[in-house]
Design a protein that fits this description.
single chain; 51 residues; mainly alpha; 0% strand; elongated; disordered C terminus
Length: 51
């Protein structure tokens, strides 16, 4: 589970870099914004708590 959570965290970061921060700033899509940060912080804290 810990490795799976870390993989999700890395995928979220890579998705953000792939889309580009400018894309989020220009589009300002709240759905993707909250979706990304929700999974990012969720799996980040989950991984930290598991460790």
């Amino acid at each position: 589970m810990a490795k799976w959570g870390l993989a999700w965290q890395q995928m979220g970061i890579r998705r953000n870099e792939t889309k580009g921060r400018a894309f989020i700033q220009h589009e300002l899509r709240r759905s993707y914004y909250y979706y990304y940060y929700y999974y990012y912080y969720y799996y980040y804290y989950y991984f930290y708590f598991t460790v």
